[in-house]
Amino acid sequence: MQLESMMLQEVKNDVITPSGRVKIHIRCRNCGEVFILRGVKDSRGHVETGFRRCLCDNDRDFDIEPVG
Ligand SMILES: [Zn+2]
Known about the structure:
Structural class: mainly beta
Radius of gyration: 12 Å
Distance between the termini: 22 Å
Largest sheet: 4 strands, antiparallel
Helix content: 10-25%
Number of domains: 1
Strand order of the largest sheet: 3-2-1-4
Strand content: 35-45%
Low-confidence stretches: none
Bound molecules: zinc ion
Number of helices: 1
């Protein structure tokens, strides 16, 4: 559910604020591939990473958590 809300918000804003940078750890539950992405957290706590899908074409089944 987390990922869906992230993806729906993709590139909605033209302006990216300099604050709220976070690292996001994404692990594919299908093939186990791990991605570390930089996301931007907005004022509502929503995180945008721009991540679309895994190499295995999975685009909805992930473990997602912030890093450090
Ligand atoms: Zn995968």
